[in-house]
Amino acid sequence: xxxxxxxxxxxxxxxxxxxxxxxxxxxxxxxxxxxxxxxxxxxxxxxxxxxxxxxxxxxxxxxxxxxxxxxxxxxxxxxxxxxxxxxxxxxxxxxxxxxxxxxxxxxxxxxxxxxxxxxxxxxxxxxxxxxxxxxxxxxxxxxxxxxxxxxxxxxxxxxxxxxxxxxxxxxxxxxxxxxxxxxxxxxxxxxxxxxxxxxxxxxxxxxxxxxxxxxxxxxxxxxxxxxxxxxxxxxxxxxxxxxxxxxxxxxxxxxxxxxxxxxxxxxxxxxxxxxxxxxxxxxxxxxxxxx
Length: 291
Ligand SMILES: [Zn+2]
Fold this sequence. Notes:
Blueprint: H1 2-10, E1 47-52, H2 54-58, H3 64-70, E2 76-80, H4 89-96, E3 100-103, E4 110-111, H5 112-117, E5 126-131, H6 134-142, H7 145-148, E6 151-154, H8 176-188, H9 198-209, H10 218-223, H11 232-241, E7 264-269, E8 284-288
Parallel strand pairs: 1-2, 1-5, 3-5, 3-6, 4-6
Antiparallel strand pairs: 7-8
The chain binds zinc ion.
């Protein structure tokens, strides 16, 4: 009897049938983007502070972890929630520091570039970003008075989003990683920070090779009557908020009403042709925040 039990005990246990997962990015190892992270992680003078909407963490194509792991420890701090600072004393301290700035396109926001021109080149900043969709970011901003007291800045950039898998709200609207990267290039006066984008490129390449369709921005789809979620009055209302013509089939080019955005976030010069997304022929694109 004892011998039989011993035989059973010696039967090798089969490995559990699970896909191996990267411990860092928590994605299946076959689609892990960690190999494209800068090594060693980059260490800027300034810090990025992400105020992350709870829903953002659940998205499978989120970019905040790429930023966090691409930067040295404590150079990208992520705080999750809808109320800030909440009970987090460390965050409250950061939000009240004089060198803290908030990237948010309020009417009072100043161009980050011009802010830097008026500061000592060695100044380090706490750059606060709200991580979420635009409606989520707007809600977080309006319901957290402490954010209103922080100096607000905006980015004026030449970049158009590389993040082509997830539909962007407007042409050229940047993901969290792309936004932080553009800001760090300015803050540190170092184009080397562009290396932070490599994991995103890896991810997009992988998704496209495996059948993902590159998405047009909502702005593009709406302007071409291809956006499925809004019809009739809602579509027209949304078009008006984007400054787009409301009559169906109107060509964009030559339409002057397009240049009346409700609120400007970034001004983007889209001179770089994109293979995955047809661009408008006009060279200047004023991006708007849909309200
Ligand atoms: Zn990984």
